[in-house]
Design goal:
By secondary structure, the protein is an alpha+beta fold.
Protein backbone atom coordinates (compact mmCIF):
# COMPACT_ATOMS: atom_id res chain seq x y z
CA UNK A 1 0.00 0.00 0.00
CA UNK A 2 1.31 3.41 -0.97
CA UNK A 3 -0.11 6.91 -1.15
CA UNK A 4 1.23 8.86 -4.14
CA UNK A 5 0.50 12.36 -5.28
CA UNK A 6 2.13 15.15 -7.24
CA UNK A 7 1.71 18.91 -7.21
CA UNK A 8 3.11 21.98 -8.88
CA UNK A 9 2.72 25.73 -8.72
CA UNK A 10 -0.28 26.86 -10.79
CA UNK A 11 0.96 27.18 -14.40
CA UNK A 12 -0.98 30.45 -14.80
CA UNK A 13 2.05 32.10 -13.23
CA UNK A 14 3.84 31.49 -16.54
CA UNK A 15 1.63 34.17 -18.07
CA UNK A 16 2.88 36.62 -15.46
CA UNK A 17 6.46 35.50 -16.17
CA UNK A 18 5.94 36.03 -19.91
CA UNK A 19 4.57 39.53 -19.38
CA UNK A 20 7.43 40.37 -17.02
CA UNK A 21 10.06 39.05 -19.43
CA UNK A 22 8.54 40.88 -22.40
CA UNK A 23 8.34 44.15 -20.50
CA UNK A 24 11.88 43.92 -19.15
CA UNK A 25 13.40 42.95 -22.51
CA UNK A 26 11.50 45.75 -24.24
CA UNK A 27 12.85 48.32 -21.80
CA UNK A 28 16.45 47.06 -21.99
CA UNK A 29 16.45 46.84 -25.78
CA UNK A 30 14.69 50.18 -26.34
CA UNK A 31 17.03 52.06 -24.00
CA UNK A 32 20.21 50.47 -25.30
CA UNK A 33 19.38 49.54 -28.89
CA UNK A 34 22.31 51.39 -30.44
CA UNK A 35 24.81 50.05 -27.90
CA UNK A 36 23.52 46.47 -28.26
CA UNK A 37 23.52 46.64 -32.08
CA UNK A 38 27.10 47.93 -32.04
CA UNK A 39 28.12 45.21 -29.59
CA UNK A 40 26.66 42.47 -31.79
CA UNK A 41 28.26 44.03 -34.89
CA UNK A 42 31.70 43.79 -33.28
CA UNK A 43 32.08 47.50 -32.55
CA UNK A 44 31.26 47.57 -28.84
CA UNK A 45 30.56 50.87 -27.18
CA UNK A 46 31.23 51.54 -23.53
CA UNK A 47 27.73 50.39 -22.51
CA UNK A 48 27.32 47.53 -25.03
CA UNK A 49 28.91 44.69 -23.01
CA UNK A 50 27.10 45.76 -19.83
CA UNK A 51 23.74 45.82 -21.58
CA UNK A 52 24.44 42.45 -23.17
CA UNK A 53 25.16 40.84 -19.77
CA UNK A 54 22.13 42.50 -18.19
CA UNK A 55 19.98 41.18 -21.04
CA UNK A 56 21.43 37.68 -20.70
CA UNK A 57 21.01 37.74 -16.90
CA UNK A 58 17.36 38.75 -17.13
CA UNK A 59 16.64 35.98 -19.63
CA UNK A 60 18.46 33.40 -17.45
CA UNK A 61 16.64 34.54 -14.30
CA UNK A 62 13.22 34.40 -15.94
CA UNK A 63 13.97 30.97 -17.47
CA UNK A 64 15.09 29.65 -14.07
CA UNK A 65 11.95 30.88 -12.36
CA UNK A 66 9.80 29.44 -15.16
CA UNK A 67 11.55 26.07 -14.73
CA UNK A 68 10.81 26.13 -11.01
CA UNK A 69 7.16 26.92 -11.70
CA UNK A 70 6.90 23.96 -14.08
CA UNK A 71 8.66 21.41 -11.84
CA UNK A 72 6.57 18.76 -10.09
CA UNK A 73 6.70 17.94 -6.39
CA UNK A 74 6.15 14.21 -5.92
CA UNK A 75 4.98 12.67 -2.66
CA UNK A 76 5.09 9.06 -1.52
CA UNK A 77 3.87 7.73 1.80
CA UNK A 78 4.34 4.02 2.43
CA UNK A 79 5.80 1.52 4.93
CA UNK A 80 9.17 3.26 4.65
CA UNK A 81 7.76 6.62 5.75
CA UNK A 82 7.17 9.95 4.00
CA UNK A 83 9.18 10.69 0.86
CA UNK A 84 9.34 13.90 -1.19
CA UNK A 85 11.22 14.93 -4.30
CA UNK A 86 10.94 18.47 -5.66
CA UNK A 87 13.64 19.50 -8.10
CA UNK A 88 15.55 21.81 -8.16
CA UNK A 89 15.28 22.08 -4.35
CA UNK A 90 15.27 18.39 -3.39
CA UNK A 91 17.17 16.47 -6.12
CA UNK A 92 16.71 12.94 -4.82
CA UNK A 93 14.00 11.40 -2.68
CA UNK A 94 14.09 12.79 0.86
CA UNK A 95 12.65 10.18 3.21
CA UNK A 96 11.44 10.60 6.80
CA UNK A 97 11.01 7.21 8.44
CA UNK A 98 8.03 6.53 10.68
CA UNK A 99 10.46 6.21 13.61
CA UNK A 100 11.50 9.85 13.08
CA UNK A 101 7.87 11.03 13.20
CA UNK A 102 6.31 11.54 16.61
CA UNK A 103 2.90 12.83 15.56
CA UNK A 104 0.63 13.94 12.75
CA UNK A 105 -1.59 16.99 12.76
CA UNK A 106 -4.36 17.32 10.13
CA UNK A 107 -5.55 20.83 9.22
CA UNK A 108 -6.83 22.99 6.40
CA UNK A 109 -4.12 25.32 5.08
CA UNK A 110 -3.55 27.89 2.37
CA UNK A 111 -0.17 28.39 0.65
CA UNK A 112 -0.36 32.19 0.86
CA UNK A 113 -2.18 32.60 4.17
CA UNK A 114 -0.37 29.94 6.21
CA UNK A 115 3.01 29.48 4.52
CA UNK A 116 3.66 32.75 2.71
CA UNK A 117 3.66 31.45 -0.85
CA UNK A 118 3.72 28.47 -3.18
CA UNK A 119 6.34 25.75 -3.53
CA UNK A 120 8.79 24.71 -0.83
CA UNK A 121 8.35 27.06 2.11
CA UNK A 122 10.95 26.82 4.87
CA UNK A 123 10.43 28.45 8.24
CA UNK A 124 7.14 29.99 7.23
CA UNK A 125 5.41 32.70 9.16
CA UNK A 126 2.05 32.46 10.86
CA UNK A 127 0.95 29.46 12.89
CA UNK A 128 3.71 27.16 11.55
CA UNK A 129 7.11 28.79 12.21
CA UNK A 130 9.28 25.62 12.05
CA UNK A 131 7.61 24.01 9.07
CA UNK A 132 9.04 22.76 5.80
CA UNK A 133 5.86 22.99 3.76
CA UNK A 134 5.36 21.72 0.25
CA UNK A 135 2.49 24.11 -0.49
CA UNK A 136 0.74 24.17 -3.84
CA UNK A 137 -3.02 24.37 -3.35
CA UNK A 138 -5.42 25.32 -0.61
CA UNK A 139 -6.75 22.22 1.11
CA UNK A 140 -6.09 19.62 3.77
CA UNK A 141 -2.49 19.19 4.89
CA UNK A 142 -0.79 16.57 7.02
CA UNK A 143 1.80 18.10 9.35
CA UNK A 144 4.34 15.43 10.32
CA UNK A 145 6.04 16.43 13.56
CA UNK A 146 9.57 15.03 13.60
CA UNK A 147 11.46 13.93 16.72
CA UNK A 148 13.96 16.75 16.08
CA UNK A 149 11.19 19.38 16.37
CA UNK A 150 10.81 20.33 12.72
CA UNK A 151 7.49 19.84 10.93
CA UNK A 152 7.03 18.59 7.37
CA UNK A 153 3.73 19.62 5.76
CA UNK A 154 2.28 18.03 2.64
CA UNK A 155 -1.12 18.28 1.04
CA UNK A 156 -3.36 15.23 1.18
CA UNK A 157 -6.04 15.00 -1.48
CA UNK A 158 -7.40 11.50 -0.85
CA UNK A 159 -8.29 11.29 2.85
CA UNK A 160 -9.73 7.73 3.01
CA UNK A 161 -6.61 6.30 1.37
CA UNK A 162 -4.34 8.32 3.68
CA UNK A 163 -6.30 7.29 6.79
CA UNK A 164 -6.09 3.61 5.80
CA UNK A 165 -2.34 3.95 5.26
CA UNK A 166 -1.84 5.48 8.71
CA UNK A 167 -3.96 2.76 10.33
CA UNK A 168 -1.95 0.07 8.55
CA UNK A 169 1.61 1.29 9.06
CA UNK A 170 1.54 3.44 12.19
CA UNK A 171 -1.51 2.68 14.32
CA UNK A 172 0.45 3.77 17.42
CA UNK A 173 1.31 7.27 16.16
CA UNK A 174 -0.50 10.22 17.76
CA UNK A 175 -2.84 11.87 15.22
CA UNK A 176 -4.44 15.24 15.98
CA UNK A 177 -7.47 15.87 13.83
CA UNK A 178 -9.52 18.51 15.68
CA UNK A 179 -11.90 19.18 12.77
CA UNK A 180 -12.34 15.48 11.85
CA UNK A 181 -10.92 16.00 8.39
CA UNK A 182 -9.83 12.36 8.12
CA UNK A 183 -13.44 11.25 8.40
CA UNK A 184 -14.53 13.24 5.33
Amino acid sequence: MEYRDQFRIPPAFLIVMGISLTTTLTIIISVGWNDLAAYFAGRPTEEGPTLFWVLLSVIALEAGVAAMIMSWCRLRINARGVGVIYRPFVWSWKWRSWEAIQGVYIAKASPIGDFGGWGLRIGSFGPYPRVHAYAFDEGTYAFFELQEGRIIAVQITRMPEFQELLATYVPHIHIQDPKSLLQV
